[in-house]
Amino acid sequence: MRACVLVLAAAFVLLAPAGAARAAPDADLVAALDAAGGADVVAFELPAPARAPHVRAAAATRAPVATILAVLGDPGHYAAMIPSLIRSREVGRRGDARVVEWELEVPLFNLSGTMELRPRPGGLELALVEGDMSPGRVVFETAARPDGTTVVELDARLDVTRTSFFLRRIMARSDWGAPAALSAAAWVALRAAVARAEHPGDAAAFRPSAPLTATTPGQPDGGALARGPLAALAARGAAALVSLAPSGRLASVAVAAPSREAPAALAARVADPRSWHAFPGWRDIEPKTPSAGEAARVAVEDSIPFVDFDATWRLEPPPRARWWTAIEGAARGAWFGWQVFPPAGQAPALAVLTMSPRLDATGSIPRRFIEAEPLLEQGMSLALAFVDAVGATRGGAK
After folding, report:
1. 13 and 162: one domain?
2. Are 52 and 157 spatial neighbours (Cβ–Cβ below 8 Å)?
3. Is-contact 256 222, C-beta < 8 A?
4. Which domain holds residue 314?
5. How far apart are CA 302 and CA 48, in angstroms?
6. Listed residues 158, 180, 198: the one ending a domain
7. Taking the model in full, what pTM does it have?
8. For the residues 316-332, what does the mean pLDDT come to?
């Protein structure tokens, strides 16, 4: 779970953007956000595993564009967005760029470096030029909507493997560990910026403070990912929805991954608990013979350092019979389930994995990270769902 350090570091890195400036967020991402039913949208480009990952994320907010840009453009107040940031100091100029030194305090060790911050029309550009996570570039863009809300997009292409040996070891458990870590960082940075813009008068960063509790299996179920612009987004790599409860805590995260496998065969395979071996770190999968009238149960033992995913999972009764709930183990109350949708036209079939993994209950390390940055509850859940979904449809678990 030391990959959480990477998430926190990259989240700070992503608090300002880079690349070629555009006038507004990507049209395909805006259309997907409109179809997401209030959830945040994350889009993945899936190159060969050896290449640097590319992730985009978008959210809607009631904060106006000017407030968002003011928040992002003031490095002296970045600690009000990410509390773990203990240093963010402008030290000079390089051409039109403001040079900022930063340091992030996280459990286990600190990370630091230098970045160049450049304003762009409707957004910001950031380049990491020295220290941890460098070199790296990200783009933040905003656009007002007719309903009075604002779309905020973050576009990140960053080689997150350029960090410590320990973090590389954690990511190496899956071919998809790097885009997973980047997606978590991107979502945390996006939500941190939105939260600050929505609460600009607060003395400290606004974060959800409600108790972490189990949610209702299958709510929301992620089926929107198989329709319209969300399905088109997923077909080009993978797409995710991050749904928040009214408290701001996680309701569920869903990831749609395309597959060339025949839909009936794909549905049968992911419905079989033996397919869970594709989830990184799920070592022993042992179906239990149910007694008369009992639901199917499966015992799982993991091989993941610093966390406890050992659990007994029970299949929910109809009409929710696609969902599995942890009834024993540290993460009791966690749930996940699959839906498979046939191809539309020339597009591939989509396998949608929806889950609420209760990472806060899986050990002291993830709990410490969520306590340090509450948005990591959702960010780490997004990363886990992505690795599991793509691992099960494309392979890559180790």
Report:
1. yes
2. yes
3. yes
4. 251-390
5. 27
6. 198
7. 0.89
8. 92
